[in-house]
Amino acid sequence: MQRAGRLFVLQYGAERVSKGLSLRGGDHGHLYWEPLTGVLVETTAGWIIFDTGMSRRHHDSAAVEQVYRGDLPPGPLPGPPWHLPPAPPADRSTWGLPGDPLVSVLQPLGLTPADLSLAVISHLHWDHTGGIETLTGAGVEVLLHADELAWGRSGRARFEEGFDAAEWSLPATRWRTVDAETEVAPGVTVLPTPGHTPGHVSLQVELAGTGTWIFAADATDLAQNLLDAVPCGSCAGGTAADEEQASASLDLLLARARASHARLVPGHDQVVWNAIRHPPGGHR
Ligand SMILES: [Zn+2]
Predict the structure, then answer these.
(1) Ligand 1 centre and the CA of 141: distance in Å?
(2) What is the pLDDT of residues 60-89, one digit of tens each?
(3) Where are the bilayer-spanning segments (predicted)?
(4) Quick check: is 217 in a domain?
(5) What average pLDDT does the segment 159-175 reach?
(6) Residue 108, number of CB atoms within 10 A of its CB
(7) How many structural domains is the chain composed of?
(8) Is residue 253's pLDDT more than 70?
(9) d(Cα 208, Cα 193) in Å, to the nearest integer?
(10) What is the CA(125)–ligand 1 centre distance, in A?
């Protein structure tokens, strides 16, 4: 089996998300602070990043804040108190690292976006695509599932539902697409897990010391999705077939994790993310 070298877990910021978006059947009035996460893997084919968080422009945007607010009244947001570091502001629905969050998250590791050899984007929601413009400027190849790029270009991926075409319509972006499970570098495999969006993918990483890791992104936001085998609460496609795909993707992730004794990591769970934070030299 081919293996990657080191793995670093990244946090670009956090966002207020309703339990109903994360868990099918969940309460839409119950808001969690959910981390904006990424994963960085050192391989013999270079550094590979999985997901890029939200752009500075979106963190600071009144239009984006309005989408998160939905029907909520102005002022402090409702929901349970924040009890985990870092503490976000009470009066906004998102927060992020200073400056360009992608640049800021790489800086402590001594890296810049130009040092990356490939970026894998789980799906086109703006809390995952914020770094594409920076990656485009740095000439880094950006990988998506072909169905996700087609969904983005279908005209059905609407701003009000968390998609910003401006972030993935730059003429200079060096796209690479896959349409099936694909090992993109030794020990790093892109795993199609559609449903949340039509071309959503997860990332499987094989390390020598800690074994198999599977990062589920928005196929499962929270540990509760995995504990109760409940799929994501939101399917962008909006049909019964999309919901069936989301359930099948959850089943695939659970089966894959069982078979490989993997660390299966949900994409937006602050408790899990804090628990797996990497040692100074990364996970090996
Ligand atoms: Zn999403």
Answers:
(1) 21
(2) 999 999 999 887 777 777 666 667 767 777
(3) none
(4) yes
(5) 97
(6) 10
(7) 1
(8) yes
(9) 25
(10) 5
